[in-house]
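Justification of computing resources. Each target in the renewal requires a structure prediction run like the one illustrated here; the chain below, 480 residues long, is used simply to show the kind of job we budget for.
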Amino acid sequence: METSHLSFFPAPVIGETVYSWLSRYHLWSGHNSFRKHSLAIFGVNEQQAAAEFPCYLTQLSKLSGVDFDWIIQHMTDCQFYKPFVSKDIYQNTINSLQSGDTGALQSKLGMVANRLTPGRQLWCCPACIQQDVAKHGFPVWHVEHQITGVISCPIHHMMLSEIRKIRSRATFPESTETNYSNEMSDNYSQLINDELYSKEIFSSASLLLTYQQGLKRIGLLTDHNQLRLKLLKSLLGENLVDMKGFVGYQQIIHALEHQYPECLFYRSTALHHPLKHLVFIHAIFGNWHVFKELYLNIEKAGVQESSTNREPTQRTNIQLNKRAKAALKAGDSLRSVSHVMGISVSTMKILAQQEGIRVDTRPYKIFLRTERAIWRKLFVGISCSDIASSFDISTGAVEQILRKHQYLKALRKNIWFYQNQKKHRNELSHHLLLNPSHSLKKIRKCCGGAYIWLYRHDKQWLIITLPAKAKRIYWPRKKK
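Resulting structure tokens:
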């Protein structure tokens, strides 16, 4: 490690997360607030320090004296996504981390489309904590434990314990009671661990041929390279039976009812989460080394396709046309552009982020200071839509805050009542002042809205204020 620009900064541990490293710095520096002091040094304001793709790596590298590439390689899980994406996508991911523009990385890597984003928990192994304390003198958060799909420690054969992420606090792994893992969970966790430390970037053509060869060996591919889809889905379902209680694998099981695993073949150019590939590899090949050996043999032989073997047709990905790009750059809403293209708003958002077009996205979390400011506006009766416009958030987000404070509903109702009462009283009084001779019929004609509202909600004041009715004249009857 080169000389740090700070007066003190701890040396990193290979395999620990960046958040773990910052937490140790905060603890040993003696700063009072993790958010206001320790994170502020690295320019972290309201971002999540424990995010999978931190936005402050360049500043951290500069101030700590640790090489940026070393941090990427040893303290993040970028290597987990490397084998199954192209070189350009992987390099763009590194560039985004270097520039700090990491807001759209989950979309660009296919995590949002595959619905396999990391949760709100940090994971640790009690046995690894004891080992770290004995080796380093302190516990650390391990990178391989935070990857989606890892549910046990294959080294110590123990299920991982979870601790909720807290944005404003430096948390550390804590030893808790946990169960021993079973063979299936260890196999998946070991497979992910082997893939994480693999340095290859797979060619999509060679990867497809490797999958086909594996399926042929077990009789799940026809002579014309067509999938025996029903049998294949049944095999994958049986392989995932023991994993149905875990969130990441629940999404894979749900995908089996739709376009998985055929999407790996017929939409091979799309971005699929590595876990989708790894579940397939586990069921067909058993482990990472068998799969990798077959892939390398195919790579050496070269990707050659005989005339008798037809490659399944590939569907092209949805792309933004020039008109849609121009409309988004001009500031048109996602909803209006998505309606023209005939796709969903969420898909439009993902495509726009992949094209590097900045769209008017709304924050997923309202922080405490903002929530307090919104509460004050709700307290004085400002409408939810006006508040949403002033804070650039959705009306639904404001209504969620309103639901948290039920007493505000009655208060706001009273405020609106007295505002309407004052408005309609003033309107009617002003009209009577200017037109004292008007009859009741003319008053109702000129101030119909105010008259009806007051008649329904403030009838006593209305009767007192209106002029006396004209006396009726009764003509005497003529004598016969």
